[in-house]
Amino acid sequence: MARYVKPTLDTKFHIDFDWWEQNSRNLRVDLQAQLCSECRAQYADRPPEEIDWVSPDTGEVKRVDILWHVIRTHCSQQPDYITEHTPVTTAVFRIFLANDNVPLTPVGLHQILGRKSPDLILRTIGGHQIYKGIRPVITPVRKEAKKAA
Ligand SMILES: [Zn+2]
């Protein structure tokens, strides 16, 4: 288990795929909620489909729901993807879907959102309650792991 480190304004966050598995939450349901009306209609009756996703951060390949790709390439380009009425947690989730889950600090998120202070963003996503898998990037300590094994 990773040690809990209290996040700061310099802590990078991202969407942690493992959180969805650990909590038996269905990522697809939350992805569907972020689709624009056009795509929602188009993908409503299609069977689930997965595609390869390469982490821009680590180069790691994961299987992700095709809806992520649809959101990133289409829905996130729509003018009402993130508005001033979008709740902070939803807006942050949408930023990571749109930017291919490149880790960002609360300061970086604030620069994209253009409202809500970095402190408020940190308080919202940096607590013990995890929203939509958004949590600090935990860098695995590889050397120690090898020694232990
Ligand atoms: Zn769309």
List keywords for this structure.
149 residues; alpha+beta; two-stranded antiparallel sheet; 41% helix; binds zinc ion
Task: Write up this protein.
It contains eight helices and four strands; from the N terminus they run E-H-H-H-E-E-H-H-H-H-E-H. The model has no long low-confidence stretch (mean pLDDT 88). The strands form two sheets. A two-stranded antiparallel ribbon has the order 1-4. It is of the alpha+beta class. Helix content is 41%, strand content 11%. Strand 2 (50-54) and strand 3 (61-65) form a beta hairpin. The two termini are 15 Å apart.
Q: Would you kindly provide a brief summary of this structure?
A:
Helices cover 41% and strands 11% of the residues. The chain has helices at residues 17-22, 27-32, 37-43, 66-73, 88-98, 106-113, 118-125, 142-148, and strands spanning 13-15, 50-54, 61-65, 134-136.
- Uncertain spans: none
The portion of residues forming beta strands comes to 5-15%
Q: What radius of gyration results from the CA coordinates?
A: 16 Å
Helix content, binned percent: 40-55%
Spatial ordering of strands, largest sheet: 1-4
Number of helices: 8
The chain-level mean pLDDT equals 88
Give the structural class.
alpha+beta
Write the layout of secondary structure elements.
Blueprint (H helix, E strand, L loop, with lengths): L12 E3 L1 H6 L4 H6 L4 H7 L6 E5 L6 E5 H8 L14 H11 L7 H8 L4 H8 L8 E3 L5 H7 L1
Antiparallel strand pairs: 1-4, 2-3
Bound molecules: zinc ion.
